[in-house]
Description:
- By secondary structure, the protein is mainly alpha-helical.
- The chain has six helices and no strands.
- The longest helix is centred in the first third of the chain and has 23 residues, at 28-50.
Amino acid sequence: MRQFNLEKIFINQRKLDQYIHKNHKVCYKNIIEELKLAFCVELSELANEVKCFKFWSFKKPSDKEIILEEYVDGIHFITSLCIAFNVSFKQIGNINTNIEKMSKKKLTEKFLKIYKYSSIINDKKSVIKVFNQYIELGLMLDFNYENILAAYMKKCKINYKRQDNNY
Length: 167
C-alpha cells in the first residue's frame, strides 16, 4: 500500500470548481446532491464502456483510452465532493495499489459497491470511502497514477474550454 499524491488533482479541481461556480453563481453547499448524481452518471458511463455487467453481449470493452476518459470524468466529480466536504488530499489515506486486474464479476461487484456508498455520501468519512473505492476501481482497470493524472489534466483543459464556450 502507498499513498497516491493527489495534491495536483485537488489543486486543479478546486480552481476549476471556482471557475465554474463563478460562471454559474453556485457554491458547494447548494450543489452537493447534483455532484453526487453527476458522479453516479459518470460511474454508469464508465460501466457502460467497461461492459463487465453485460452478460448478454459478446462485445469487448471499449478501448483503454475511452475507458480512461470516462474514469477521469468520475475523478472530477468525486474530487469536487471531497472539496465540498473539506477533505484534503492528505486525508484520503492509503490506497491498496497491489490490486490485480479483476474478472468481470469482481468489476461488477466493485461498481455496485461504489454505487451503494455514493448514495450515502454525507460527510468526510463517507466521501473518502467512495474516493478510495473509485481509485481501487481504476487500479482494477489497469490504470496507474501517471495514467490517471495525465488524463485528468487533459480533461481539465477541455472543461475550461467548455466553460468558456457556454457549455
